[in-house]
Amino acid sequence: MWDFCGMSRDRLGLTDALEQIPALRQEFWEDVCVLGASEELNQSLEKAGRVADFLELAELMCRDALERDESCGYHFREDHQTRDGEGLRNDKDFSHIAAWEYTGHDRAPMRHTEPLMFEFVTPTQRSYG
Amino acid sequence: MHLTLRVWRQKDAWDPGGFQTYSTTDVSTDMSFLETLDLVNEDLILKGEDPIAFDHDCREGICGTCGIVIDGHPHGPLPATTTCQLHMRLFNDGDTITVEPWRARAFPVIKDLVVDRRSLDRIIAAGGYISVSTGRAPEAIAIPVPMDTTEMAMDAASCIGCGACVAACPNASAMLFTAAKVAHLGLLPQGQPEGYDRVLNMVTAMDDEMFGACTNTGECEAACPKKIFIKWIARMNRDHVMATILSRPTTRRAHGVSSRAALTDR
Question: Cβ separation of A44 and B12 shorter than 8 Å?
């Protein structure tokens, strides 16, 4: 996640991450070692559960970052930048908020969008000048 | 640094438990005590042994989740410091350190160094809140509160509810904890309408949870990571006497703590 879905990301890295994560997740479920017993407080199980959650969330984050094919605020896509290295927005196609719906185990989540309307000010690239 | 840790291991509340000795190397002086336990646990995990269970959350000394007895001192030998903020530079290479859970009848061991401190939550549930509607924030000048009073209320409010006071007390008393909560609300105008009910109900809940009584030993104040004053206990006792004499019994309500709470004529 640090390498491919960090403060700056691009199509290539995100695609790579999306190929690696399912393999990592499979390795986790096959090789995970949870110490302790079932009839007592088990902090190892608690941690394993969290890692399992992170492996699902990681994939969704990469999928979402790949889908938003523009730079926008903190989502800086290296493949969408101006000549000065600032984020290049694409408000024509991405002026919406998106939420992912869980559709079941091992099935791709569904993306829902809700358009954003701007009446008085229009979104623009941030200028520090 | 190389350290030897004698750690209390206990499967659950019914297991008699006992000390296990662990040897650890590569302890950095910059590590916190909890990080040293993490290090020991990493070794145990690699060896396929059950890691030591201990409570932790913020690791910056403000949440009150961590807390173990280190060489006989709750939160270790450094004053006004939580276990997570205790650093290994305080110890010497080659030291043997004894690590135990809080020990009190009202804090049954869940596992190893983790104890059940819900008894403190139940004391809070008995009255450690303000339920009267005070409306919107009033003009500051409408209810003048002297600066000294707000400072005192803030001092009392800084209790993080870790339970070190109970662990330090030879009577396993929760008087410092309860007194801090009573003082924090009782010093401010918003806390006045329920003042009598609060102290009566919270003290009853404290007794119901089997915490001991105060004998002015002062160990609680010495162990407290937030330097809560023992004088709050005297203040709570005075409040309790006043409430017993002056409150109308009909105004006392049980808060679902126990059938005895608030009904006992104290």
Answer: no
8 Å CB contact of A43 and B12: no
Contact A42, A34 (CB under 8 A): yes
CB atoms within 10 A of CB B42: 12
Supply angle C-alpha B200, B201, B204, rounded to 5. 85
Identify which of A33, A40, A43 has the shortest CB distance to residue B11. Answer: A40
Among the four given CATH numbers 3.40.50.1000, 3.90.226.10, 3.40.50.10350, 3.10.20.30, the one describing domain B3-111: 3.10.20.30
B108 reaches A (C-beta below 8 A): no
A40 touches chain B (CB under 8 A): yes
> Is the CB of residue A33 less than 8 Å away from at least one CB of chain B?
yes
Q: How far is A22 from chain B (nearest CA, A)?
A: 25
B252 has a chain A CB within 8 A of its CB: no
Interface TM-score (ipTM) > 0.90: no
CATH number of B118-251: 1.10.1060.10
Test A44 with B48 for CB contact under 8 angstroms: no
Token pair listed for B208: 């119901």
How far B182 CA lies from chain A's nearest CA (Å)?
A: 33
Instruction: Output the CA torsion B241→B242→B248→B252 (10° steps).
Output: -60
Q: Which residue has the tokens 């791709």?
A: A108
CA-based nearest residue to A67, from A54, A56, A80, A55: A80
Alpha-carbon distance B9 to B26, whole Å?
A: 23
Segment B200-249, tens digit of pLDDT: 999 999 999 999 999 999 999 999 999 999 999 999 999 999 999 998 76
Per-residue pLDDT tens over the stretch B1-26: 999 999 999 999 999 999 999 999 99
pTM of the model: 0.85
CA distance B13 to chain A (A): 10
Instruction: Give yes or no for B111 touching A (CB within 8 A).
Output: yes
Question: Mean pLDDT for chain B?
Answer: 92
Instruction: Give the mean pLDDT of chain A.
Output: 94
The boundaries of the domain holding residue A105 are 8-115
Cα–Cα distance measured from residue A119 to residue A100, given in angstroms and rounded to the nearest whole number:
27
